[in-house]
Automatic annotation (TrEMBL):
This is High-affinity choline transporter 1. It is a multi-pass membrane protein. Coiled coil: none annotated. It comes from Daphnia magna. GO terms for cellular component: plasma membrane. CDD domains: SLC5sbd_CHT. PANTHER family: HIGH-AFFINITY CHOLINE TRANSPORTER 1. GO terms for biological process: acetylcholine biosynthetic process.
């Protein structure tokens, strides 16, 4: 194997540019954040001071990752545009996120996507939903790194594993020090690299002698969906659309801008750009489909195996364009990877630090302590994603899988806690979560080696032909609502003794009105502001007098302390 020294040098220059910008942003963030009471929040949300222009570009760059770019070309090469579902599904996800989720999340000033769950259900039960969120972010990062690994291994003759781990290391360095500031500013540069690099490659690849020009122009670009595959097709689209919403990487940008209106426009404008940026990959995938790889290129092999199909885009860059052009294409893919990998790594680490470590493990942790926890978790998430990236073959399959558990388990929970909060409770949350994960595991997953135990109708040839993920998602949604309604009736109407309310969802002492703030929410507000523990432990709210009134007048002006006899033990708040 002859290593492409010039190519490695070009990639090294690109990495150094990105690293310089990232570290410069980290230095400015550190300088601006000195003396603040919540340094970990500053690094997670950039002090909620992200402008609309930078916000749109960082949101777009986050979605247009390596799996997005390489996977789109792979899908068009294999089955046509109609099966290139990721770009259009995720664009619709951004639009729906802006319409129904961005405004309420930003107006309530949450720090992470998991905050409303912990406010509603308590710290421990809300923290349970961290698991599918972590799964989605980590798998997404793995798909991104896998895309870059295959590209570097083809063009530069690098070992795939070395390419994955070295690329992850570069993204980790500036994320480790600069957080959201570094991620956002590097995303702006990376997005221009993506656009310029891929667009530059198109005319050179199109005019290559090995490409059948007549077939290229007259081919069935759209492709078709077999009737037997319609269930899978629908399921994949719904998975990408609704499963693409509950991502911390999305909400981290929504929560970092200055207002709820900007959060909505951020989503809409990013959706348009995401769709437009899929066009270069679609064209390159179509070009690859009409290329005589066996007789017309130095590759001298037909693209038939799954490993070859996975590398469609890097093969086009390497064999259908001049070397200097392929370096720009490689820079585009590298930029796509960096722009999404850093975002996902920071997102998963933010949730762990804020919603697990600070909320549950070590509530009294100082800002410096939490910064250490955040940086350790950044390293851990990057390591796990890198291992997955070198273990699973299909990039497009990884990009679908990353939305799978999020769609089945997290989307119905997020929908209810935002838009039907009064209709759900802890019992519904836990029951629907367990039913959803059990059904999804028993339905099988080839990429993870899970056998099919439950065969839905029309099961054939080892595959579920029905939109089974959507069926499971809808089932978990109705289980949540049903269990919540039944348990509420049982405890509020006295059908079951209070001693059976082991989750303390309906304690007799809790009689606060709907317009008042609940003790869980007050507890969580104090936690996020670094004022945990002393206020609510072992003290009756009505006995706190004027001092408590003054606190409430600042944090929640509408609270009427005289009408809130509540149970305030730490046990209740953490259930």
């Amino acid at each position: 194997m002859i290593i492409n020294t010039a190519g490695i040098a070009a990639v090294a220059v690109f990495y150094l540019v990105i690293l310089f910008v990232g570290m410069l942003a980290a230095w400015k963030q550190r300088k601006a954040g000195r003396g603040t009471s919540s340094p970990e929040e500053n690094i997670m949300l950039a002090k909620r001071d992200l402008g609309l222009f930078v916000g749109v570009l960082t949101m777009t760059a986050t979605w247009v990752g390596g799996g997005y770019v390489n996977g789109s070309a792979e899908a068009v090469f294999s089955n046509g545009i109609v099966w290139c579902q990721t770009p259009f599904g995720y664009s619709l996800a951004l639009i729906l996120g802006g319409l129904f989720f961005a405004k309420p999340m930003r107006e309530k000033g949450y720090i992470t996507m998991l905050d409303p769950f912990q406010i509603k259900y308590g710290l421990n039960i809300g923290g349970l939903l961290f698991l599918p969120a972590l799964f989605g972010e980590t798998i997404w990062t793995a798909s991104i790194l896998s895309a870059l690994g295959s590209t570097l291994s083809v063009i530069l003759e690098m070992d795939n594993n070395l390419a994955v781990f070295s690329s992850a290391a570069v993204a980790v360095i500036y994320t480790f020090f600069g957080g959201m500031y570094s991620v956002a500013l590097t995303d702006v540069i990376q997005l221009f690299f993506i656009l310029f690099g891929l667009v530059l490659c198109i005319p050179f690849a199109w005019m290559h002698p090995a490409v059948n020009q007549e077939a290229l122009v007259n081919q069935n670009w759209l492709g078709h969906v077999e009737p037997s595959s319609s269930g899978i097709f629908i399921d994949n689209y719904l998975l990408l659309i609704f499963g693409g919403i509950p991502y911390q990487a999305y909400f981290q940008r929504v929560l970092s801008v200055k207002s709820s209106k900007q959060a909505q426009w951020l989503s809409y404008m990013a959706a348009i750009l995401c769709t437009l940026l899929s066009i270069p990959s679609i064209l390159l995938g179509g070009i690859a489909k009409n290329t005589d790889w066996l007789n017309g290129t130095d590759y001298a092999m037909a693209l038939t195996s799954p490993d070859q199909v996975k590398q469609v885009l890097p093969l086009v860059l390497n064999y259908l364009t001049p070397q200097w052009v392929s370096f720009f294409g490689l820079g585009a893919v590298s930029a796509a990877v960096m722009s999404s990998a850093d975002s996902c790594i920071l997102s998963a680490s933010s949730m762990f630090t804020h919603n697990i470590y600070k909320a549950i493990v070590c509530p009294s942790a100082s800002g410096r302590h939490l910064m250490i926890a955040l940086r350790v978790s950044i390293l851990a998430v990057a390591a796990i994603a890198s291992v997955l990236a070198v273990s699973i073959n299909s990039i497009y399959g990884l990009s679908l899988l990353c939305s799978d558990m999020v769609y089945v388990l997290l989307f119905p929970q997020l929908l209810l806690v935002i838009h039907a909060e009064s209709s759900c409770n802890k019992y519904g949350c836990i029951t629907s979560f367990l039913f959803g994960i059990i059904l999804r595991i028993l339905s099988g997953e080839e990429l993870l080696g899970l056998p099919v135990v439950i065969q839905f109708p029309f099961y054939d040839d080892g595959r579920q032909q029905m939109p089974f993920r959507t069926l499971i998602m809808v089932f978990t949604l109705f289980v949540h609502l049903g269990v919540s309604f039944v348990t509420e009736q049982c405890f509020t109407k006295g059908w079951l003794p209070q001693k059976f309310d082991f989750l303390n969802s309906y304690p007799l002492e809790m009689t606060y009105q709907q317009e008042d703030i609940s003790p869980e929410e007050l507890h969580f507000q104090f936690m996020t502001n670094g004022k945990l523990e002393a206020t609510l432990q072992e003290v009756e709210l009505t006995e706190m007098g004027p001092k408590f009134d003054s606190v409430l007048s600042i944090s929640h002006p509408k609270v009427k302390t005289s009408s809130i006899p509540v149970q305030t033990s730490k046990t209740h708040l953490n259930n």
